[in-house]
């Protein structure tokens, strides 16, 4: 079995666009010019980035956001967005100034607490100067009002992410850096927060975000949807997808509240796959431990040209009807990527390698190819194949994070681990990883240590070979 067609298509597209990618060094230079590239430069000024070498301006330093309260109104005809964001945050240092990430859109006001704050725009940074400096550990609220026509951001690999207009609304998927195209954010997965969304759209359209639907009401030709996600969520996993959708709601035997929104043009193709969602989640819960959230579902949009799906927390967003392995993949991300988050984009194999390996296991346990057979077919590829272009533990730059070596060789690394420790210990490792880092973060080094602890084996050589050695590894 080769990797599934949907993301395969996205990867093929990124491969074609690889050469015209934006130079990855440019943002580093910008960060340096801003004079706030890291903790060393901090002083009483919040850093312009979270310190990620692949996306230096993603996220910000000097504070954590505990909650986002987003009020949005989207006019699907004019594509105009009105927004108000209230961020509840805590300073991690004294702050005379701090940044939010926001790209495009016009800011009409910023307050910190009840007091108007100074602000200026600097590329994707919204630089806020509160009237009074914030003390270390001070809790504060920032309110930003803004409006405009949101545009997606072009990633280093040439793909679009963020607020992507469609013919009946917008496909909203922010990985890795698109949250800033529709709300002011501390936009790096290091910072996780709960969310409230209040989204008003023309009557007849549906706005779907993460978590539980708290209510909806229609007045004067507009419908307002209120969504709440209580579990900590990285900004890139937030969605507010708008369209003409058929909605289906039910509660699974495990008590998970399912809300599916399907573009009628994708309804026929997606119905048999969506029907499997409860059994896929139940199967994954057996393998990985309890499903990490209260809500689940799918947003199946008709968004030709996007070329990928995203594991938006609780409710993945698909650009068209998914096949079963894509559903399995995005569902597995709820454990690996959403509940357990990255601290650095370099560790992306912890998301994509795991979600891909979930597809292999699903196939193996449902009458399809064994994971060994999938591994063997990939391993048979010659040394010059793109699969071996770079090691998954060190993709080198942001333009490679969604490329084949991350997905396929990342999954191969897990298969090698499984063979080395045996099935029982392997499943214990996956379980322990999801449990111990639930609603938090995990790094590659932590995963290696956990695998060694659970198995009692020295696994440095195995992980070194499969995650970090350039070129095709020697067969184990
Ligand atoms: N994380 C997504 C998945 O594997 C894929 C994805 C998100 C992606 N953003 C992207 C792929 C941008 C290519 C380009 O399900
Ligand atoms: Zn994925």
Helices and strands in order, then pairings?
Layout: H1 5-17, H2 25-34, E1 63-75, E2 80-91, E3 98-101, E4 106-112, E5 115-116, E6 118-122, E7 125-129, E8 139-148, E9 153-154, E10 160-166, E11 169-173, E12 192-202, E13 206-208, E14 212-219, E15 222-234, E16 241-243, E17 246-251, E18 257-262, H3 264-274, H4 277-288, E19 295-300, E20 317-318, H5 324-332, E21 340-341, H6 349-365, H7 371-379, H8 404-421, H9 423-436, E22 440-441, H10 444-455, H11 460-468
Parallel strand pairs: 1-12, 18-19, 19-20, 21-22
Antiparallel strand pairs: 1-2, 2-8, 3-7, 4-5, 4-8, 6-7, 9-10, 10-11, 12-15, 13-16, 14-15, 17-18
Helix pairs in contact: 4-5, 5-6, 6-8, 7-8, 8-9, 8-11, 9-10
The protein binds tryptophan and zinc ion (ZN).
Characterise this structure:
This protein has 476 residues and is of the alpha+beta class. The chain has eleven helices and 22 strands. The chain has two domains: 14-27 and 341-468, Neutral Protease Domain 2 (Neutral Protease, domain 2); 31-244, Immunoglobulin-like (Sandwich). The protein has helices at residues 5-17, 25-34, 264-274, 277-288, 324-332, 349-365, 371-379, 404-421, 423-436, 444-455, 460-468, and strands at residues 63-75, 80-91, 98-101, 106-112, 115-116, 118-122, 125-129, 139-148, 153-154, 160-166, 169-173, 192-202, 206-208, 212-219, 222-234, 241-243, 246-251, 257-262, 295-300, 317-318, 340-341, 440-441. Strands 5-4-8-2-1-12-15-14 form an eight-stranded mixed β-sheet, with no helix packed on it. A hairpin with a 2-residue loop joins strand 10 and strand 11. Bound molecules: tryptophan and zinc ion. Residues 329, 333, 351-352, 355 line the site of zinc ion. Belongs to the peptidase M1 family. Its EC number is 3.4.11.2.
